[in-house]
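Final report, closing paragraph on structural work. Over the funding period we assembled a curated collection of sequence-structure pairs, and we close with a single example.
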Amino acid sequence: MDLRLPAANRDEKYQQIAEAEKNKSKVLAAKFQELFKKAKEEPITKPLKDIDLD
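Its predicted structure, as stored:
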């Protein structure tokens, strides 16, 4: 039985998880920038209340 094989699999799995976490932060940062830009472009309006519709 080769003990290096499970260690290699563990290291490979760790690298995949680490890369996924790096990409996750990049994706979240891009989404934040996109939504922040969209929020800056939209005008700020007061929400309508039910009483205003009468």
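The CA atoms of residues 4 and 10 lie 10 Å apart. The chain has a mean pLDDT of 86. We thank the funder for supporting this effort.
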